[in-house]
Amino acid sequence: MYQWDFGILWSYRWLFLNGLGVTVGFTVVIVLLGLVFGLFGAFGSLSRFKAIRLTALTFIEAFRCTPILVQLIWFYYALPILAGVEMTPITASALALSLYGGSFYSEIIRGGIISIDKGQSEAGAALGMTPRQSMRRIVLPQAIKRMIPALMNQSIIQFKNTSLVSVLAVPDLVYQSQVAAHDSYRPLETYTAVAVAYAAILIPLTIIVRRGEKRLAVSE
Amino acid sequence: MSDTPKIEIRGLRKSFGSNEVLKNINLDVAKGGVVALIGPSGSGKSTLLRCINLLVVPDGGSVRVGDTRFAFGEGTKLPDVKALAKFRATTGMVFQHFNLFPHMTTLQNVMEGPVTVRRIAKADAEKLARAQLAKVGLAEKADQYPATLSGGQKQRVAIARALAMEPDVMLFDEATSALDPELVGEVLNVIQQLASEGMTMVIVTHEIAFAREVADRLIFMRDGVVVEEGPARQVIDSPQEAATRAFLSHFHRTGALPPANAGS
User: Which one of B56, B65, B81, B82 makes the best mutation probe of the A interface by having the most chain A beta carbons within 10 Å?
Assistant: First the structure.
């Protein structure tokens, strides 16, 4: 029977905290950047111009339909050769994860916008609003309310996806725990603790999302 | 009434795919005139109404409301979004399904056009909006959300919202078709009041008795063409065309308007 000894992890606490800081900070960056890409993707895919629509859809599907691990490696090893620019592991992985997340955010935002009854934008147009005004005043305020639970869910997935950046030696929680595991010869304790750390952050968040969904269902 | 019509439509054509819904429609509405558009579903009457404020862009012909005229067809450029928006701001439209903005209170719904489109100061827009709500008998519902209103009340708010733009012309697209029968009267009363104030209106309706009372001209459409047209009472009481007679035989054509609900 294996003798658990979690006490040994205490001496690595700064390493873990450091890694956790990188993971959280990285998540914030890729969620924000991803939302920006997502907005561009969504409005692009709803554009009146076919060329813009096709470009947006091509990007969205390219990132949605390839594994994130492959994208991370491709952005770090292949893109610099093709584009002729050196990228640090952090830049490459931030870019890959933001675009990957952005492709899913795009679909959520697009779905939210087209879920709003066409009569709403018609009523705006009949009042004399330009398409932009009716998007801003009428459609988006209603659509954003519907998108929020799905956007939160996708962001939770993004938080977990940051664990993959350890393959490019970005010093996140998983990477640091690999260091600790090799150093202490205690991989069971180390990875259990890491799993608990992810869950401890995400479980409260999922509860918040679920409450939000319920409140939304009541208000509609 | 002046000599030049307020609304003038010439040679209007519109197809959706291979389905030709409007075939060479001509229509004049005098200033202060009330025209009722009737006909079976699929006759093109709603599409014609939506062409008047260009919610539907015609394939050919021309549309003029007041001093603004747009021509369509081969070789003409489609109007840009700004010109379209400016044009639509002068015509009010009321929809079958109300299309109130659910995320805004009744008052905000009515203020939205004046604030966003006409750029009126909030305080003035609120005064204007409250006056319009009072006019349709809903002053005390100002702070409620549309979801809490009855169908008839929603439609009256929608009318107030359109009137707050102080339009030259009002278009009604089956404004009472989605209402429970006992709520139809309160909406028709508001429309009748507008008619008596001299508002130029085009009304798509299935309320034949109402059209007979309120409209001065009546147009019967079928399959994208105007079959019969004339003074409302004359067409309803003694239709000349067989198709008009057949259609009208489904309705009670006379009688009092349904009463408005007291205290609603």
Answer: B81
